[in-house]
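Troubleshooting log. The previous structure file for this entry was overwritten by mistake, so regenerating from the original sequence record. Sequence copied from the archived sheet and checked twice against the printout by T.R.
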Amino acid sequence: MAADSNLGNTTLSGFLSSLLTDYKAQIERHKNLPFMKGTMAACALVAIADGEVSFGERIRVDQIIDALDALQVFDPHEAVDVFNQYCEGIIKAPKEGREKALRTMQAAADTEEKAALMVRIFLGICESGGETSLAKQIEVVMLCAMLGKEPKDLGLYIDNPSEAIFDPARS
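Regenerated output below.
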């Protein structure tokens, strides 16, 4: 009978431990949800700036999800679905979709550290396809300004005005 009692205590202990682990994971998800949504909104704003999301940009979004500790508590498919929702929202209703994505991104960049991380995310998406389109560069400069980051400190301004001439092969 004592063995049965120990077995019951072990089972209860394991159950409580599992319950506590699940609870902590849910708290972490809840705490990081605004950041995940803001990150995916930022990715969408830059990726869709030229009117389409490339395969390289999708790969970069996956890399961002894998690299950021705060996003590890989410199923990667969940984050990708949020990214896709922001992209679709911007395509279907450009003004409203962008405004929603901008609000979400700004809310997530509520500290200096998070704002700096958002800028690195912008640049990562912007540079994911090799050549960067003028539309993406303009979007990144505008987003940096919204977050209080100086675009020239990031190498986003050019010194030679002739480089700013639109070249369809580069966009």
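The helical segments are 2-47, 55-67, 76-92, 94-108, 112-126, 134-146. Archived copy saved in two places this time.
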